[in-house]
Write a structure and sequence with these properties.
Helix 5 links the parallel strand 2 (about 160) and strand 3. Helix 2 packs across helix 9 (about 335-345), helix 4 packs across helix 5 (about 170-175) and helix 10 packs parallel to helix 13 (about 445-460). This protein has three domains: about 5-60, no CATH class; about 80-350, Aspartate Aminotransferase, domain 2, CATH 3.40.640.10; about 355-480, Aspartate Aminotransferase, domain 1, CATH 3.90.1150.10. The longest helix is centred in the last third of the chain and has 20 residues, at about 350-370. The chain starts with about 45 loop residues before the first helix and ends in a 10-residue tail after the last helix. It has helices spanning about 45-60, 80-85, 105-120, 135-150, 170-175, 195-200, 220-230, 250-255, 335-345, 350-370, 395-405, 405-415, 445-460, 460-465, 480-485; strands spanning about 125, 160, 180-185, 205-210, 235-240, 260, 280-285, 295-300, 310-315, 380, 390-395, 425, 435. The chain has about 500 residues and is an alpha/beta fold.
Amino acid sequence: MSDIYEFNGAAGSGWSQPPPMFEGAEKTIPISLRRSKLPEWPRASEPELVRHYTWLSQRNFGIDTGFYPLGSCTMKHNPRVNERIVNLPGIDRIHPLQPEHQIQGLLAIFFEMQEMLEICAGMDQVTLQPVAGAQGEFAAIRCIQEYHRDIGEGHRDKVIVPDSAHGTNPASAAMCGYEVIEIPSGSDGRLDLDALGAAVGDDTAAMMVTNPNTLGIFEPEIAQAAEIVHAAGGQMYYDGANFNAILGKTDPGRMGFDAVHYNLHKTFSQPHGGGGPGSGPIGVKSHLAAYLPAPVADREETEGGGIVGDGFRYFWRTPEKSIGKVQQWHGNAGAVIRSWAFYRRYGRELEKMSEHAVLNANYLRHRIMQGAEGVHAMPLDGAPADVVKHEFTLSMTPLKDAVGVSGKDVAKRLLDYGYMSPTLYFPMIVPECLMIEPTETESKEVLDKFAKDFLTILAEDPEIVTTAPHDTKVRRVDEVLAARSLVLRHPLTD
């Protein structure tokens, strides 16, 4: 255990400041900003500080420390070569206000990343500005909104989402002022075309869809859904959260989508960043390109080969009818460069990445559903499907009915076995839901052990499971209280 605030070294050390460089320097600081007493910093030496922060780092759990099967989040390995590239001289110290002729290399990377994302999603233009998937959603829906206003159809005020949609979908639509229309999924967990047909009308602005959906199954009738929405004058929006499952196999453009957001911190290996910022670029078809957030990277042919030697001059461009900026500066440049390095390294092999992600999900699902002796009750599939894509859902209702162990209890107990818990209670259409996504990162050995440990938990004494976790640094907490009563400062005493 380490508590830096209990260190009591020599008085005056650890927090003392060097004397002013010239007499009366303190007078340059307004009285309102001057301290009335010395700060309550710990009196700690450098070794003590290093040990403290090393100790803190060891309390964290991430993809570098263990299996992280967080469904719909694609917690995959982040190759270290990407970190080396983003820290290369000429990249690591670029300022966003530098003139274009000094950042031609960065602009070339941005332009190339835009092109690569356009190709893999079947879109015509991409902007890299949004720094989160949800922000990308908002930006794309705003582009659709301005498009409709521009063509004289500003009366369209409704956005359709399936009941299995990510919560950010209706939230983004609502932030743009739309009324959200939720349609139920069919008994197979897929889109109900009859329900969609009943929901569309001349007031439909867009439909927001994830494919594969949050149950981990592909929507085989997505093209028909797009035809229904387009026939009513609406636009199709693709939530790219699950893009890792289809890269190289198909793309949203072929499915009939008009706009898409990408999660570079999912599919393209950018680290998740502890809550942000990440990177959520958006791509659109040509009729929406004029409304994209600014700026986008562009280029023109030049004499003399250009600064980067490819015959082009790169520059920032503002689309003709841009909705404006949605993020300060030019987006999360570090995330873009890491993802660009990942894309350049693997190229067409990214299709194999998707294949392995789907293979891992189906293998793990099969291993779990084989069952084991002594299990109190086996989970149910979240949706009937012979084959899932990158993730799958399990309903723990049978276990809860049999011995009172809930999905939350199983998730907490997995922490004791050294795993991050799967996504819990989402999608909400699956009762007592666990959503599991192994990604392409994990080996067969890791998946076999997880399945074995998972089944062991289902056979354990219910009292042990319902009181878990037992071996973590922090025991079971009241999540509602923790969310509503944030403690963001260490309590200091006078």
